[in-house]
């Protein structure tokens, strides 16, 4: 959905050696990797560990975008080690595979994608994704989905407390 925002930057990204991967209907310009085509062609067989295992757990695994609280939003490096550590997030706070986790945080942010979604995968919990947080719909959503845990940052709780009973 956001490819049009990235497309004007493609020449400078290529100069910097940044690969652009897109999941969605193409066609895409040369140099852009269309993930859906690769997924459709991929084998179901797992590759040997030496193909996918990182040489160093401190190497870059992925980039996320900061919210810009200390300036403009920017990409931030996340290591393989930090990504793996996120698998244990919900376990650290007492959640388990029996929980249903409500997540209304942006997935481009570490709190949403790595702590939220990856944290659910780490404990085998169900993750309920909400496209956009709505304080007025929150409790109805939680009841409808059987939510037992929700992840919040910033002002979410204040918004909930300010809703009519």
TrEMBL record:
One of its GO terms (molecular function) is long-chain fatty acid-CoA ligase activity. It catalyses: tetracosanoate + ATP + CoA = tetracosanoyl-CoA + AMP + diphosphate; a very long-chain fatty acid + ATP + CoA = a very long-chain fatty acyl-CoA + AMP + diphosphate. Keywords: Ligase, Lipid metabolism, Membrane, Transmembrane, Transmembrane helix. The chain crosses the membrane at residues 107-129. InterPro entries: AMP-binding_CS (IPR020845), AMP-dep_synth/lig_dom (IPR000873), ANL_N_sf (IPR042099). One of its GO terms (cellular component) is endoplasmic reticulum membrane. It holds the Pfam family AMP-binding. It comes from the Eukaryota. Residues 48-164 form the AMP-dependent synthetase/ligase domain. Belongs to the ATP-dependent AMP-binding enzyme family. This is Long-chain-fatty-acid--CoA ligase. It comes from Ptilonorhynchus violaceus. The gene is Slc27a3.
